[in-house]
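Hey, quick one: can you model this chain's 3D structure?
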Amino acid sequence: MCFPPFYSDFGKNITIGKNVFFNTGCSFQDRGGIRIGDGTMIGMNVTIATLNHGLSLETRNTTYPSPVIIGKNVWIGSNATILPGVTIGENSVVAAGAVVTKDVPENTVAAGVPGKIVKRINDGLE
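Sure thing. Here's the predicted structure for all 126 residues.
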């Protein structure tokens, strides 16, 4: 299910599993590829970017694609940003407002800017 508006720069490079939910205002830059696993929930205004630029002046105008992979049963909170090349493991949670620059292991909570692991999730028990 997707609550509009939903923005994408290309659209054909997004693979979505079953029972996935997108809240309103999501923006996906998908030229590097985005794969979203079954049962994932994505909050309002989440940004997923798959392109980066070179750092040096010689390559700054060149874009480099890197896929974003989101595992099954992931929850991404509102206004989170997922950067190119990141994999988010199954059953993980990305806190609202987090900027995820590195992979998130399965069954963990990532929060902050830059996103860091703040908690392990134990079999769904709080």
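One thing worth noting: The chain has a mean pLDDT of 95.
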